[in-house]
UniProtKB/TrEMBL annotation:
Coiled coil ranges: none
SMART domains cross-referenced by the UniProt entry: PKS_KR
Name recorded for this polypeptide: NADP-dependent 3-hydroxy acid dehydrogenase YdfG
Ketoreductase domain: residues covered: 6-191
Family, per entry: Belongs to the short-chain dehydrogenases/reductases (SDR) family.
Length: 237
């Protein structure tokens, strides 16, 4: 595929789903900035991504809990590449405990990262996306419609994110900006301190979500899949 001038910003892109999305987009010829709360982690991931196509990845230290930090990440992308076409709001955290055991700190961190963090990512990037008629893709979860025990914080953040995303989509599509919410089920990542192994072969793989992002941005301009649920084709045993 011919190289394009398109650029993407992926929050939480140093591992897991965010990294898988970055791999696919770079293979498609799209330049990618990945963020992490650790500059070291961001740089290490960008180094690996640049082995796919040299100069196509940069790492940015950024915390979605800070609007200023998100604004700086967008500024870095614009200074580096001159435009921003795609934002993948992927950064997330999971604290799973009964309401009896869930701490106020765990609740606040979950809401701050999974919900408020996406709001900050949107506020920081919408002006740039308006210039390119760009795309804002939220990585939510099937937990945004399916509640479960020990999920008070996580369910609240993801139910809220689905509602936020759909309302945001209605606000910005008049400006030519697309918004899609991807709601994955089980994905083989390090999320919630899990260590992926061969036992996770039945799960969605991070690059599967990357392929979905790639497919979405290739949709005809007139067509918008506003919410996509995705789950393993065969459940684990």
């Amino acid at each position: 595929m011919a190289e394009s001038t398109k650029t993407a910003l992926i929050t939480g892109g140093s591992k897991g789903i965010g990294y898988g999305v970055a791999v696919v987009l770079i293979k498609e010829g799209i330049r990618v900035a990945i963020t992490s709360r650790s500059q070291k982690s961001a740089d290490e991931a960008a180094t690996e991504l640049n082995k796919i196509k040299e100069g196509f990845a940069i790492g940015i230290e950024s915390d979605v809990r800070s609007l200023e930090s998100q604004q700086n990440a967008v500024k870095v992308v614009l200074e580096k590449w001159g435009q921003l076409d795609y934002v993948v709001a992927n950064a997330g955290v999971g604290h799973f405990a009964s309401i009896y055991e869930l701490t106020p700190e765990q609740w606040q961190e979950t809401i701050d990262i999974n919900l408020t963090g996406v709001f900050y990512s949107a506020k920081a990037s919408l002006d740039a996306l308006k210039e390119t008629k760009g795309y804002f893709i939220n990585i939510s979860s099937l937990a945004g419609t399916n509640f479960f025990p020990d999920g008070t914080a996580y369910n609240a953040s993801k139910f809220g994110l689905v509602g936020f995303s759909q309302a945001m989509m209605m606000d910005v599509r008049k400006d030519g900006i697309k918004v899609t919410t991807i709601m994955p089920g089980s994905v083989a990542t390090e999320f919630a301190n899990h260590q992926p192994s061969e036992k996770d072969a039945w799960k969605i793989q991070p690059e599967d979500i990357g392929q979905m992002v790639s497919d979405l941005i290739k949709m005809p301009a007139r067509t918008l899949p506003s919410k996509v649920e995705v789950r393993p084709a065969v459940p684990g045993k």
